[in-house]
Design brief:
Distance between the termini: 41 Å
Strand order of the largest sheet: 7-4-6-5-9-8
CATH topology of the largest domain: Molybdenum Cofactor Biosythetic Enzyme, Chain A
Strand content: 25-35%
Number of strands: 26
Helix content: 10-25%
Shape: elongated
Number of helices: 7
CATH superfamily of the largest domain: MoaB/Mog-like domain
Number of domains: 4
Length: about 400
């Protein structure tokens, strides 16, 4: 490349398609009790071996009866039994009713439950205040039918998924083992919080942001420490991390300055597949491999590191675990602002959800969008996407990524 040539910037969709297609995947599995499996990736399909619920049951407190015994509102039925949840009643005879409670099995012969507030009872006889048709009965299999697919391999387990597995009698689940990720931060200026700052030093905030993001993905995070701005030290740290990790994530040192050594070290010890994305912020992103270990070199600015992790690293790690859903859910919302035409890079503005004059939800970006302004992440609800070479008018539909979609 000549000195006057600009480096080629890769669109983020192109970069993701390329990366996701060639990532190594975890094959090893482990079996965990349900209470330890939240956030983990299922290693096999789960199919129900029985109906849920296993029997017809009452949807509320009331009286189980046979609608064939009713004659409008004048019918009087004899209450012959009481059925609580967990109990099994006797079959109903002609003209009989059963006091029944929510979740209790419907007795044989009954086909409806009259709500208790629509009934009157005197001397063991039930009289209806309102007509009853076949109602308030949950049929066997109303939730899950026997033989139905409940959760598929690649599902990342949420609390509601664990409850679903428990409802079909599953006690333990097979999941992919955790990824081992080494987290490196580079820069002579970095020190850990708790240390007195000297002239020219700053606290290593990126480590804590990225550590927490990785923890939310339920990976094992290995602390690679702060690596000084030195080529040999950077190479040594990368090689050491590659022997114990599935993935290395570094921050800083991926640009082209004299003190930026990460890119060169990766090219020496491994292979670089991608460098420089057509996004703002976050352009100087490096991706490659050192041996069999995946590598992501994130920019050093805190906003750039956060955004490139959310947009690129997170879906890649989930893909390595075999997850089916790896990208964040996005939403179309109206712009509450206007802006002049954007540049060649796709922009990710930190924005808040606000109510416009009509009470509709609109997007409003923060005023300071600098890549070093960490408070813009703290004070916003998510990211609004501005495509390249695009001007924005109030009311335009824009794509929004809530932080809730990338923080779990």
């Amino acid at each position: 490349m000549s000195q006057n040539q600009k480096p080629v910037l890769t669109p983020i969709d192109t970069a993701l398609d390329m990366l996701l297609a060639q990532l190594p995947q975890v094959c090893e599995q482990e079996t965990l009790p349900l209470e330890q499996a939240s956030g983990r990736a299922l290693a096999e399909d789960y199919v129900s071996s029985a109906h849920v619920p296993p029997h017809a049951s009452s949807a509320m407190d009331g009286y189980a009866l046979r609608t064939s015994d009713l004659d409008g509102e004048s019918a009087s039925l004899k209450i012959t039994q009481r059925i609580a949840a967990g109990e099994v009643g006797s079959p109903l005879g002609v003209g009989e009713a059963a006091r029944i409670f929510t979740g209790a099995p419907i007795p044989e012969g009954a086909d409806a439950v009259a709500m208790q507030e629509n009934c009157s009872v005197a001397e063991g006889q039930l009289t209806l205040k309102k007509p009853v048709v076949g109602e308030n009965v949950r049929q066997a299999g109303d939730d899950i039918l026997s033989g139905a697919m409940v959760l598929a391999k690649g599902c990342r387990l949420r609390p509601q998924d664990l409850g679903l597995l428990a409802s079909i009698g599953v006690e333990k689940v097979k999941v992919k083992r955790k990824l081992r990720v080494t987290l490196l931060t580079t820069g002579n200026e970095l020190v850990r919080p708790g240390t007195r700052l000297k002239a020219g030093q700053i606290y290593n905030s990126n480590y804590y942001t990225l550590y927490s993001l990785l923890e939310s993905l339920h990976v094992d995070v290995l602390d690679g420490g702060i690596v000084e701005d030195d080529f040999e030290e950077t190479s040594k740290a990368l090689l050491a991390a590659a022997t114990v990790s599935d993935c290395i994530i570094s921050t800083g040192g991926v640009s082209v300055g004299e003190e930026d050594h990460v890119k060169a070290a990766v090219e020496k010890e491994g292979v670089l597949d991608l460098w420089k994305l057509a996004i703002k912020p976050g352009k100087p992103l490096a991706c490659g491999k050192i041996g069999d270990c995946q590598f992501f070199g994130l920019p050093g600015n805190p906003v750039s590191a956060f955004i490139t992790f959310a947009l690129v690293v997170r879906p890649c790690l989930l893909t390595m675990l075999g997850c089916e859903q790896v990208g964040p859910q996005t939403y179309k919302l109206a712009a509450g602002f206007k802006s002049s035409i954007s540049g060649e890079r796709q922009e990710y503005l930190r924005a808040n959800l606000v109510n416009d004059e009509q009470g509709n939800v609109a997007l409003m970006p923060l005023s300071n969008q600098g890549s070093g302004v960490a408070t813009s992440l703290n004070q916003s609800d998510g990211l609004v996407i501005i495509p390249p070479y695009t001007s924005i008018a109030i009311g335009d539909n824009l794509t929004f990524i809530p932080f809730s979609e990338i923080l779990n």
